[in-house]
Amino acid sequence: MLHRLGEVGVIEKPVPEPGPNDVVVRTTAALVCTTDVHVMRGVIPVEPDVTLGHEAVGVVHALGSAIEGLVKGQRVAAAGITPCFQCDSCQRGFSSQCHGRMLGGAQFTTQRDGTLAQYFLVNNAEANLAPIPDELSDHQALYATDMLSTGFVAAEHAELELGETVAIFAQGAVGLSATIGCRLLGAGLIIAVESVPARQDLARRFGADLIVDHTQCDPVERILQLTDGQGVDAAIEALGAPETWEAAFRVTKPGGRISNVGYHGEVHEPLKIPLEPFGYGMSDKQVYGGFNRGGRGWLRRIFRLMETGKVDPTPMTTHEFSFTEIERAFRMMETKEDGIIKPLIHFDSDLDPGMEAVVDTN
Length: 362
Hints:
This protein is an alpha/beta fold. It has helices spanning about 35-40, 90, 125-130, 140-145, 145-155, 175-185, 195-205, 220-225, 240-250, 295-305, 325-335; strands at about 10, 25-30, 50, 55-65, 75-80, 120, 130, 165-170, 190-195, 210, 230-235, 250-260, 285-290, 315-320, 340-345, 355-360. It starts with 7 loop residues before the first strand and ends with a strand. The mean pLDDT is about 95.
């Protein structure tokens, strides 16, 4: 069945075969990401009929001939990026920029079929697959694959020291994860900028001390008031909009840090840096843009935080669907209908093998 750009549908494809260093995973659960919606809209160019998705967990179905340390039937998770961990970029610590390509580690959908399928292939699997601890549900483990991973990287790039102040613009799933990360890193004051009441409640639950509703006030003025005119030590942009990008510079004090994790692919003009808050280039403010880190070790660290009860991201799941309802899940993610934040997709073992969620780009 054909699907036009902007329409997601389900088709059948062959179950992938692993190369020597690959593993094929049978999917048990997945999440739909706003990035998948960007692909659906054509913002991120992909090949025709590519399978969507990059947040999934499952069990090992087939192993490449060179794979060691993994066994069939083992519960595993792969991060939303699957770098090679062998190239110069990976060796330098920039795994998301694998092979020196912008976001080259983001292979699902952009370089190969993604994870919204009954089976998906993971490259360099010994480095990219992490066994899921028995103490964690698939639901919990899913959040390590992208949302927590990306939000935690944003928090780390804010370089917070104990007791410092931080403003986080937007409390979608990544912004909420950044709020969790800032709390874990010991921020003394976390200010979340968000207008949706349900997301405000989650932000408080996850560690935000104060909420600024940008529909009720000028968020820059309010944040400056809350910090006695000084501004915050760090700001995190988690929306991907020119307004929040500029606001992050305006609320950050001299010598502070701006951590960008929002995707600006739908912005059709260059982002502007407000010169006066930037000290006309001499404010000692640092700007860092980053993404999901990926890899077995990184996933294990996030799993550990959940195992010990320090993190429970599952309240971000607002809706649940079966795989056969995937089109409805995408429509709701595009329109943000019914206050959706993250939809959990359940994979029924009775489904026909080879079913995959695709968008036709013709």
